[in-house]
Amino acid sequence: MLSSFETGAVEAIGRLLDDFEKSVSEELEDLIRVQRQLCLEDAKLNILSTTDAVNLTVTQQQRRISRTMAPRIQEFMEDAYSKAVKEPGGHGSYRRRKDRIREFLEIEENRNEMFEGGAKVIMDRLDEVAVAVGNALYESVGTALAQKIEVNLSVLWEVVLDDPAQVRARKNMAEVAAGVSDQVSLWLEAAWHQYECPEQDDELTDEDFGFDDELRDEDFDVGSDSDYS
């Protein structure tokens, strides 16, 4: 029943992996081929086991639906059965009983009511089966398998590339991150200072830092230019 789903799901996953393989750098081509094959094997095993379980469940539910229909029909036919068993015994009694049941079924209203009632029972049960199958497929393929494929592909990000361009890119990114961190720290410090001293004049003076106006360069041991040559 789910053979078309199995084929379509494997093909869809294969196309996604093909697109992913085309997007990686040349340094990862060999590794992505290995991981792609692992992902496909996991997908086939997962989908096969899932469809087998779903088919078994559907078969069991079909039998359950059939067993549910029998009591419903028996209940509806109860009046006809009662009339049939009241027929006197003896020669021709079996035929007369069949006639009573046939007469009941020949009434269109009775047939329609029995069909509609039975159809409603079947459709309600089929809706339950469809929801259960959808949930099972989503949980197994849409969640568990997706996470497994993600784990298989995650090893690509664990490889440290020594390509010069990659090294430069990482270095530049680290510098940018450090600059952003420093700038954020300055903003936070300024905001905190403004919070602590809301009425202070915006123009800071030496007094704000506890500096003495009489201090001269000679008061600081900064060394001569020759010390840094």
From TrEMBL:
Source organism (scientific name): Candolleomyces eurysporus
Source taxon at top rank: Eukaryota
Protein name: Uncharacterized protein
PANTHER family with a match to the protein in the record: NUCLEAR GTPASE, GERMINAL CENTER-ASSOCIATED, TANDEM DUPLICATE 3
